[in-house]
Amino acid sequence: MTEGIRHSARREPGWLRRAVSCDHKVIGIQYALTALLMLFVAFCMVLMMRWQLAYPESPFPFLSNFFGEDDTRMPKGVMLPNFYNQLGAMHGTYMVFLAVVPLLVGGFGTYLVPLMLGAPNLAFPRLSRVGYLCYLAGIVIISFSFITPAGPSNSGWTGYPPLSVIETGGQTYWLVGIAFVYLSSLFLAINLITSIVQLRAPGLSLLRLPFFVWSQLVTSYLLLLAFPPLAAAAVLQLMDRLEGTSFFLPSGLVVTGKPLDASGGGSALLWQHLFWFLAHPEVYVLILPAFGIIAEVIANNTRKPLWGYKGMVVSAVFMGFMSMLVWAHHMFLTGMGTVISTFFQATTLIISIPSIIMATSLLVSLWGGSIRFTVPMLFALAFLPMFGIGGLTGLPLALSATNIVLHDTYYVIGHFHYVVAPGTLFAIFAGVYYWFPKVTGRKLNDTLGHLHFWPSLLFMNAIFIPMLLQGLAGVSRRLYDGGATYGFGQEVFFLNKAATHSAFALAIAQLPFVINFVYSLRWGKKSADNPWDATSLEWNTPSPPRFGGNFDKPPRAHRGPNEYSVPGKAKDFSPQWEPEEA
Amino acid sequence: MSAIPHTATPRRDTGLYNAKVGTWLFLAAEAMFFGALVSSYVFLRSASAEWPAARDVLPVGYAVANGIVLILLATASVKARRAARAGKGPKWLWICVVLAVCSVTLVALEHRIVGATGARASTSTFYGMYYLLSGIVRIHVGGGAVVTAWIAGPCRQFADIKPIRYANWVECLGYYWLFVFATSLATFVLVYVV
Amino acid sequence: MGSGMIRRFSILASACLVFAAASHAGSIAGTITYSGEVPKLPPVDLSGDPACAALHGDNPPANEVLVLGEGNTMGNVLVRVTKGYAVKEYPAPAQPVTLTQKGCQYSPRVFVLHPAQTLKIQNPDGIMHNVHGMPAVNTPFNRAMPKTLTEIEVQLPKVEDPFEIKCDLHRWMHAYCAVLDHPFYCVTTKDGVFEIGGLEPGEYEIEAWHEKLGKQAATVTVGADAPAKQDFQFTRPAKK
Lengths: 582, 194, 240
Ligand code: HEM
Ligand SMILES: [Cu+2]
Ligand SMILES: [Cu+2]
Prior knowledge:
- The complex is a heterotrimer of chains A (about 575), B (about 190) and C (about 240).
- Chain A is mainly α and about 575 residues long.
- Chain A has helices at about 1-10, 15-20, 25-55, 80-115, 125-145, 165, 170-200, 210-245, 270-300, 310-320, 340-365, 375-400, 400-405, 410-440, 445-470, 495-510, 510-525; strands at about 255, 260.
- Chain A has a single domain, classed as Cytochrome C Oxidase, Chain A (Up-down Bundle).
- Chain A is globular and about 80 Å long.
- The two termini of chain A are about 20 Å apart.
- With about 240 residues, chain C is mostly beta strands.
- In chain C, the strands form four sheets. Chain C has a five-stranded mixed β-sheet, with no helix packed on it.
- Chain C is globular.
- Chain C folds into two domains: about 1-35 and about 70-90 and about 185-240, Carboxypeptidase-like, regulatory domain (Immunoglobulin-like, Sandwich), CATH 2.60.40.1120; about 40-70 and about 90-180, Cupredoxins -  blue copper proteins (Immunoglobulin-like).
- The interface of A and B includes residues 228, 236 and 263 of A.
- Protoporphyrin IX containing FE binds near residues 88, 95, 286 and 413 of chain A.
């Protein structure tokens, strides 16, 4: 039926016209591809770092001849500490600001939300084009610092002063780049919220929205409200670096033996407050849309409505709200006083409740379902325990007493990577496998999918469990030699090799995915419009949805988002768009 | 290409048109931005050993004059909205632009005077904050002036083609000016009165 | 104290004396001594880097902050003429100055460089160091030397008072470098003796500098025949 309509549609514009158009699908794909590229770049950076951690001061394989004796980054392929610091700062920055958030919100959000709403486009199409350009500008500016003589910023993705103010690397590029990233996520957030509020199809009440849309809504609110303080902080730090103000420089600062030439009177802690006011909500920006993806995939593959949908929605909203009240749990060691510490310790424990509710709801949703073990479902199933480990390892960090021991160790690195790597990244993979047929009209290959999933699951754990153990042994993070020259590093140094070998194995395990992706784009099995027998509105479009308008006729929602296996129905799924038969 | 709903007329259940929602969201983000700057100001001020009384070292007269200009500006923007809804000409929009230019000039003069005393942003965190806050207000007024002029001038044709949307734009612009007025008032109170 | 250190001192000492012997004109000579209670300095604590500790076994190097000989004569004091010498261009020594990091210790600890002379910094042990020079007049340098990087060269083209060079990885590693465009200086060894030759008769201002105990100045009149005598005595500043 849809076939006929598609052929009768007027001729579609050429690829160039489309590439610069303001269609949300085009922009969403551009976001996703750019962000995937950034993910790859950030992963390569960390592979180089991992080599140095396992084999400190040994030339990186293949690279030793590319770099001369006098190179200031990797003379003869040996990574210098400053370059390690720069790569570390850039790995964090690329991953968080340039890869995962743009992928989840810019890619998945921009592409899917209008479809799930039954809307022809986002509310402000041109704004989303501008937002994408801001994102590109951010990438260009931050990446440009790599080819400057001083190299990129080396003060961590957190940019803590005083180091970030006095450092001679690319911190200025970092700040300006982050300002552009801020603009891009501001425009994204405005667009998504307005669309969700205004563009819902008739019948699509708030509680009929797929959980994915709810997760994007809360995420957008977080971006909207939490990012501006970091933008303000970036302005202040730019003033410190360029105008010589001392907003973040305390009085009496001595740098390498000399008193610093600045008026002083500022506070380095102020930056930490402003930074974490964004950066804590930012970790929910990294995890909430992941939950959204997983919820859709699980509902579809268990052939059951989500268990506790309303509870999940309430939890997501509550979590979003609370996430702005926990930031100083990153600052227990700054001596801010026990009263404040107690407050933030309490809020942090409270915020773990909604995450547990959401994870539990998803887990319970599996109960009694006739589970289809498709590739997206495998990733979704793996997500649950991986996120579980990430969340549970976070509890000791939330308590200020245990935090004293664990702060700034590899335990922290292990903890949050469990959340963002086998957690969020697996959700991203689940989403890619799940919606690929909708976006391209072709399915990804299952065998290659299995070849991708199982090794990835294995090696992810083999990377991050060693980090947790090293952290418990006391190994600090941000050490360029993996602890080789430190007393505490001796006993657990061998774990560096385990983690590094696993990281390289993980890289190889991504090959099936890359091959699958490229191959299926062209030669993959043709997909029907609704290949997974799914229920939400995006499956009511042709695959791929029509350029400039999405739906063949404006849809109407007749029921909730995940009405699977409704008793008394012939089919095991009741799509939102199908009217109740009389 | 199917049209995006509610660009002009409000959606029934929310009672809002899209641009209004977008503007409110934008201003919410702006409020957080100013909020962060203001909190930084309070943080630094309460943590610092000495903090001069702004009334003694800064030319208050200019700030007061600027405040009056911004009150007028906010009022003019309300008038402009009424005019646009009634389908009248862009007179009030242009008045907004003129007032905004006045305000920007006043701040520039004020900075000249403060600069002549030898005070730079790097002199102390007090002066750093002063230049920063007043500079940010100035950027907002200047940016608003550009957009207002753009809507009053080049976009004027839309007043005939899409009258409702045009009036919507002017209304959103009015919210922006009210916001700028409110924040600069808050800044003034913070720097000079508290 | 290892044999390496003794050898190093004898090289330095002979450099001073050879120079004095080659001079035909007058000279200034003297002895630097330390007065007061000698502090008991513990040996260098190398535990921060197990690889460095392994190089020394059970025999950690002595602390070189204060190097004293018989009768409390002082080593590592830089004595130099600050005023009175003929201001002209003195050629730079042909050889570069070499600073090694053998055994996770800088040697020489105190040395002088000519503005046109190259400073070679060597890393013979296969241990990463990070040389961080902190001149005030010249451009500071901060270079990591992984084990694969055995030698780097540094230029310090401007005249400068003694400044510190430290290792950012090993907090016990310190060296001090002065950049002088004339040859009228001497760094003492343990015996505390210095002699500065090649000076025309006349009045000179000289200065003795020690990394921790500060500097002292004196005015000396050099005659045609016998060396002018000028001793210095350092002592710990009184505790406040
Ligand atoms: C799966 C591949 C990944 C590996 C092997 C990996 C490895 C690492 C390692 C070893 C560090 C610690 C560096 C140090 O402290 O010296 C690190 C830091 C970090 N990583 Fe990852 N990571 C991966 C993925 C991610 C993802 C997906 C994200 C974010 C969404 C991320 C965000 C960060 C951040 C923010 C830091 C801290 C940077 C800093 O210290 O400033 N990483 N990563
Ligand atoms: Cu946090
Ligand atoms: Cu060293």
